[in-house]
Amino acid sequence: MSVVVHEPTIDGSTIECEVTPPKQLRRFFTGDPFRVEYDVDMTSLSPEIAVIPALAHVCPVAWANGIDVRVPTIDATFLDALEDVRGVLRRMYPTFIEGGEIRASEVVDTRADRSPAEFDDSGLLFSGGIDSVASYVRHRDEEPTLISVQGWVVGVEQDDRWDGARRHIDEFAADRGLDVQNIRSNMKSCLDMPMLQAHYKRYVDGAWYSSVGHGLGLVALCAPLSDALGLDTIHIASSHTAEFDQPWGSHPDIDDKVRWAYTEGNHDGYELSRQEKIDLIADYVRSESQPFPIRTCVHDERGGNCNECEKCYRTMCGMVLAGLDPNRFGYEMDERTFVRVRESLEQQAFVMDDHTVFHWRDIQNHTGRNRDVPVDGATEFFEWLATVDIDEITESASEPAHLKLVRAGARIVPYPVYKSLYPVYGMLKNGALLKR
After folding, report:
1. Which residue of 22, 133, 154, 279 lies most exposed, with the fewest beta carbons within 10 A?
2. What is the pTM of this model?
3. Residue (of 29, 7, 25) closest to 16 by Cα position
4. DSSP conformation letters of 148-195
């Protein structure tokens, strides 16, 4: 019994793989083939490399159910990487990652036909947010290729929003003489993310992709690109430091093990907290750069910051604490913003997971610094934040009981029934969030 990832087909810059799950796993797949598009022609790409992005997204779902994955051919180095990552995820999530074998008809050492000298550049997964900008600052001497991914935070169907997000990335790259490569993939719509969330939310701190799949998945999306451009390293910015003790889908133990041919992943910046990354960016701006837009979220229809979500508030506060004026970096902030942030925290208006609380605690730990703040109201806000019980004010709000009931039902009802229920769950969830 296996999930079958069929041999990839390549049409110019597009790679497509059919995926056939066994009956008990069909609810986790939408039936669409896995598809990924690049900016460069992939016609000459070997199937062993072309299949890597699909395998990286299918395997964690199979492992969560103890199911094998079958594939016609696979790169030998990536096969070893998958076995390593499977072991890491089993240690992270022993309650539901059961394992499963990768069964390939042919295992190919793709290094035999290439020279390591052909791979002497690097790539950086780049969203324009704090983490990836900090990684650019750390590796700017490499002049890395910036790699943006549509289908991760911005969906493949949200082209208008993506055009706005891409514009920020393109301008950042152009000002620094960097190449930008865009990847467009249905990796989160080929998998049935709502069903995965319904089944595994009880085990993970965030969503399925962020908690389990995104380190392996995003780095592996770059495999065909690395082959075409000669990239020996794919940097992926860290989300946390070693002080964050919860499992997460992007971690040095995962990302640093993802490899194929002569390319390997690099989990970057793990020694820096988010506030320390903002400080690094502040030093870079003061010494080498004019201010530039930083993209925290893409809720704005133009692909910019909404200025009112938890992540925007958190980032603006961190920037002010570092002595930066968020208004010069693509945000809209004034004295009233601090009032809204405080009220939102005191009223527990945000549904926060451990990941989010970790970052607010990081800001609180840096409030004692002596630095001029460039926005009115900041001093009073940070004086308040320094004295509060961060765990109390950021205590995660419980999911309403009726939503838990619908989600729990998804784990036991037949798939066709759940497909009819999920739109109701979505409407209920949106309504609950609007009331907060």
Report:
1. 22
2. 0.91
3. 7
4. EEETSSS-TT-HHHHHHHHHHHHHHHHHHT--EEEEEE-HHHHBTHHH
Residue 280 counted as domain residue? no
What was the pLDDT predicted at 396? 54
Pairing of the two strands 263-268 and 19-20: unpaired
Structure tokens at 390: 């961060």
Does 324 map to a domain? yes
- Residue 424 and residue 371 in one domain: no
CA angle 405, 196, 86 (to 5 degrees): 135
Among 234, 268, 302, the domain boundary falls at: 268
pLDDT in tens, 151-166: 998 888 888 888 888 9
User: What is the pLDDT averaged over residues 393-410?
Assistant: 53
188 and 41, same structural domain? Answer: yes
Distance from the first to the final alpha carbon of the chain: 45
Q: Is 100 left (phi over 0), alpha (psi -120 to 50) or beta?
A: left
Is residue 279 one of the residues assigned to a domain?
Answer: no
Rg (Cα) of the chain, in Å, rounded?
A: 22
Q: Based on the domain organization, do 196 and 262 belong to the same domain? A: yes
Q: Which long-range contacts (CB under 8 A, 24 or more apart) does 424-429 make?
A: 425/194, 426/194, 428/400, 428/402, 428/403, 429/403
Report yes or no on 212 lying in a domain: yes
Is residue 113 domain-shared with residue 199, that is, in the same domain? yes
| Total count of domains within the chain | 3
Indicate the residue among 227, 252, 268 that finishes a domain. 268
Distances (CA, A) of 255 to 174, 219, 230, 356, 363: 28, 7, 19, 21, 26
Please give the full DSSP string across 258-317, using - where no structure is assigned: -EETTEEEEEE-TTS-HHHHHHHHHHHHHHH-----------STTSS--SSSHHHHHHHH
- Please tell me whether residues 174 and 87 are part of one structural domain: yes
Q: Which domain holds residue 8?
A: 2-118+127-268
Do 91 and 204 fall within a single domain? Answer: yes
- Least Cα distance to 5 among 81, 58, 80 occurs for 58
Q: In terms of domains, do 152 and 263 share one?
A: yes
The answer to whether residues 367 and 221 belong to one domain is no
Q: Are 181 and 147 in contact (CB under 8 A)?
A: yes
Name the helix (H) or strand (E) containing 15.
strand 14-17
Neighbours of 86 (CB within 10 A): 21
pLDDT in tens, 201-260: 999 988 999 999 999 999 999 999 999 999 999 999 999 999 999 999 999 999 999 999
As a whole number of angstroms, the distance between CA 354 and CA 243 comes to 12
Tell me how many degrees the CA angle 295-301-304 measures, rounded to the nearest 5: 15
Cα–Cα dist 417/341, whole Å: 41
